[in-house]
Amino acid sequence: MSIQPKTVMALTAVMTGAAFLAYCLYFDRKRRQEQDFKKKRLTKKASKTGTDGMQVLNLQDTIAVRNFVYGEFDKGRELLTKGHMEEGLHHLATAIALCGEQEHLLKMLEQSMPPLLYNLLVQKIPEIKQKMLNGKNVGAVNP
Fold first, then answer.
1. Of the four, 9, 21, 82, 141, which is 20 to 30 A from 35 by CA?
2. Primary place of residence (predicted)?
């Protein structure tokens, strides 16, 4: 009685997968059983977030700032289309406050937004900039 090569390969693949899974589980359990595991995890998590749990934006990282601005702009547009005016204007004002080309973006928005919304947006931008200067979290909406 001979064993077919396909069967041998399938058994080898299953055994290799099981061995790898056992290896991962063993070292994960070993890592979690360390005495300072929770302490390390909490300090690492605290260093990534601000005091209120929101992500801290590194203004020196241009890619992170650009992604944040695009994200805030998209959130603002989406909220405005859903009818959430205050939240949408807050996100748009945050994006404009961090944007390098504010005048160009404001001109574009002036042409595409109703005058009432545009005026509210322009009034909200200095408020957001002041919060940034004071070091407050601008991610939270305070209607």
1. 21
2. mitochondrion
For residue 102, what is the DSSP state? Answer: H
Q: CB within 8 A of 70, min separation 6: which ones?
A: 95
pTM of the predicted structure, to 2 decimals: 0.56
Torsion of CA 88, 97, 51, 141, to 10 degrees: -20
Rounded to 10 degrees, the C-alpha dihedral 99/102/104/109 comes to: 90
Burial of 89: CB neighbours in 10 Å, binned 0-12, 13-18, 19+: buried
Q: Average of pLDDT values for 58-79?
A: 84
Distance CA 33, CA 112 (A): 58
Angle CA 125–130–133, to nearest 5: 130
d(CA 130, CA 132) in angstroms, rounded, equals 5
Nearest to 138 by CA among 51, 54, 48: 54
pLDDT in tens, 102-140: 888 888 888 888 889 889 989 998 988 888 877 665 554
